[in-house]
Amino acid sequence: MDMDQETANALFEKGACLLFFNAPPNLEFGIDYNAWTIGPLFKGIKMIPPGLHFVYFSATSKEGVQGMRTGFFHYFESKEILVREWNPQTEDLRDETELDPDQIERYKINIRDFDRNMGPYPLVPSTHYDKWTKLTNYITPGLVRRILPNNGKVSHLPSKTSQEENLLSVKDKRRGKTIEKEEGMEFTPFDIRQSFPKSATGDEITRWSLDKSWLARDLLSRVYGNNHKILLGEMQLAFVCLLMAQNFSGFNQWKQFVHLLCSCPDLMQSDPHIFIDFIDVLQAQLDECPEDFFRDILSENNFVAHMLQNLGRDILPQQEALKSRFDKLRQFLTNRFKWELPESDEEEDDEDAPVVVEM
């Protein structure tokens, strides 16, 4: 679908701009699903649709080797002009706090002078932008400020070795040791195993350990103002941190949310609409997983499979809307990953993981 003139005009009026100065030669520069190797005349991106975007770059060495991808999330307001400048010492961006405010003001007043050197945000064909909005539609400016307080910046592990150490420290967590977290990420902390109130009786501990509804309701009221869409927004932010910035804390937080929301039969009975929205979010995410990533990471210990079997098992026969949404997800998994989820009413052993169907 090509962008019509009306949309183009609206974006010209309402769209935001990112001015980007002093980029080194051969910098790979990207926004959302679009990346380019930029030339010497490049001064930024214009006509950015208002909303959340991820801006990233990686420098190419003299030998032509691509560096680590670094980036930041920013919630662009309509007509906003964001100014960033490359700092060759740190191979990173200076943000506005490090720039001269008068200079920034002059740039903004003279924005038209840069017009020829700014690329338009690619909206034709609209597939990339549509995918991006699907993955981020619940992320609010407040979530970005809270979870990425460092001006939206996403850090990730500097070297291979610390990645491995980090993987080890994640494994240690099961034995009760702490997990290192990438700095600058403030995901909502919760422990899926501590899913009952502090004052819980023995019976309550048993009940809410199996059914995580108490924990989900506690998080909803304590953290998300009883708005499940903001909770799903954090799940989306965790996933795009993983997808776009290969960020490990994002992956852990995402898994925690999936685990939580696939283990709440009581909440599912009282608020089935939460779970319809959750399945929408999850399906859009799985659709964006590269095949090998899905096979290697998400199918590790059949994590996704077990979770979805729990979810399917908890849907009551009279919950028709939820049931039909879940069946669509099941069909999607078969088409996209050649994956069959066993029907939930068959009691299956752990051995009976989902079967890969040869199509």
Automatic annotation (TrEMBL):
Occurrences of domain AAR2 C-terminal (ranges)? 187-341
Per UniProt, what is one Pfam family of this protein?
AAR2
AAR2 N-terminal domain spans which residues? 15-149
Q: Which GO terms fall under biological process for this protein?
A: spliceosomal tri-snRNP complex assembly
Signal peptide (UniProt feature, chain positions):
none
Q: Which residue ranges traverse the bilayer?
A: none
Entry's family note:
Belongs to the AAR2 family.
- What is this protein's record name? Protein AAR2 homolog
> Which organism encodes this protein?
Circinella minor
